[in-house]
UniProtKB/TrEMBL annotation:
Cofactor(s) needed: Mg(2+); Mn(2+)
Reactions the enzyme catalyzes: (R)-malate + NAD(+) = pyruvate + CO2 + NADH
Protein's recorded name: D-malate dehydrogenase (decarboxylating)
The species this protein was found in: Sulfurifustis variabilis
SMART domains the record matches: Iso_dh
Keywords, ordered alphabetically: Manganese, Metal-binding, NAD, Oxidoreductase
Length: 349
């Protein structure tokens, strides 16, 4: 069997605590299914930045290029501005490797309390456009220090970029319940969002077997809370997809269980798998972070590498561990540690 080469970047804060649990579960899956996984560790982080002035070495992207996948914890830490950790590592990786589809599944796990009164049927995937849109470098400040000071930020929506993310959403919907919802805001954002809507209609016509609808982002967030069961695949721009996936993770019970994949669908480059959550400095170093988001990100990685059976087995092991409240970490209302929960999931495998 082919050995998959995995670049492991634990990063900062709880990234260093949950990645070892993710690897422990991947190893258990590899043993059970006879998979070959070879890891190489990279200690790139805000600490690296403090020592060297860079989040990763100048040839960092070239070194990652050779891998089959990247397994990332979280980057970002107090004292280092967010834009340094984001633009010094995460965003260059996503862009260089054309990981334009950010896939964030959200579902209800048994044994977990959702803050919603009626979470019935919550089982959706947010597809976020990952390399263009609102998160652009174009813009700046004018007349600094004067009364007329102003800041401008441009959004960029290319036909290539919009069409390919929409197609990714429709293709995924065909493997699920065949419904795509588009997040828009064409009543307030009058250039880019009407364009997005126009392309959504054009791509939808290529998929007559998939039903569609669209909502403005403001009311869409309300529906996520009030009627989450009505959604299957939800596709949004970089900003809207970001917001929806954090919200989705929260309504599922805790952000500590939400995995994500930054996919290069053409498989020309490595894809990257990381939890939705960040480095959580408020709980870092205490050994109480929930490792499930990292572990499920590992399941998504195995799925992407062609091992759907192993991915499903990890999900089942997570479900069985969640059935035991003694294994819940504090974010789930319990008292278990990161390592206890990780070991139980690996054991269940
Ligand atoms: P980022 O900007 O990287 O997305 P953030 O500022 O949104 O980060 P997070 O680091 O995701 O913040 O943390 C948000 C809150 O969720 C914090 O209170 C944190 O403790 C909690 N949290 C995040 N991840 C976990 C986890 N795995 N287990 C338990 N609590 C978590
Ligand atoms: Mg966040």
């Amino acid at each position: 069997m082919k050995t998959h080469r995995i670049a492991v970047i634990p990063g900062d804060g709880i990234g260093k605590e949950v990645v070892p649990e993710g690897l422990r579960v991947l190893d258990a899956a590899a043993r059970r299914f006879g998979l070959g996984l070879a890891y190489e560790h990279f200690d790139w982080s805000c600490e690296t930045y403090r020592k060297t002035g860079r989040m990763m070495p100048a040839d960092g992207l070239d070194r990652l290029r050779e891998f089959d996948a990247i397994f990332l914890g979280a980057v970002g830490y107090p004292g280092v501005p967010d834009h340094v950790s984001l633009w010094g590592l995460l965003i260059p990786i996503r862009r260089r490797f054309e990981q334009y589809a950010c896939v964030r599944p959200i579902r209800l796990y048994p044994g977990l309390d959702s803050p919603l009164r009626d979470p019935a049927g919550l089982d959706l995937v947010v597809i976020r456009e990952n390399v263009e849109g609102e998160y652009s470098e174009i813009g700046g400040r004018l007349y600094q220090g004067s009364e007329g000071e102003l800041a401008v930020q441009e959004s960029v929506f290319t036909r290539r970029g919009v069409d390919r993310i929409l197609r990714h959403a429709f293709d995924l919907a065909r493997t699920r319940r065949r419904r795509v919802t588009s997040a828009t805001k064409s009543n307030g954002i009058i250039h880019t969002m009407p364009y997005w809507d126009e392309r959504f209609a054009a791509i939808a016509a290529e998929y007559p077997d998939v039903s569609t609808d669209q909502f403005h982002i403001d009311i869409l967030t309300a529906h996520f809370v009030l009627r989450p069961g009505r959604f299957d695949v939800v596709v949004g721009s970089n900003l809207f997809g970001d917001i929806l996936s954090d919200l989705g993770a929260a309504v599922a019970g805790t952000i500590g269980i939400a995995p994500s994949a930054n996919i290069n669908p053409e498989r020309k480059h490595p894809s990257m798998f990381e939890p939705v959550h960040g480095s959580a400095p408020d709980i870092a170093g205490k050994g109480v972070a929930n490792p499930i988001a990292q572990i499920l990100s590992g399941a998504m990685m195995l799925e992407h590498l062609g091992h759907g059976d192993a991915a499903r087995a990890i999900e089942q092991a997570v479900e069985s561990a969640l059935g035991d409240r003694r294994l819940h970490t504090p974010d789930m209302g319990g008292r278990a540690t990161t390592a206890e929960l990780g070991a139980a999931i690996a054991g269940a495998l």
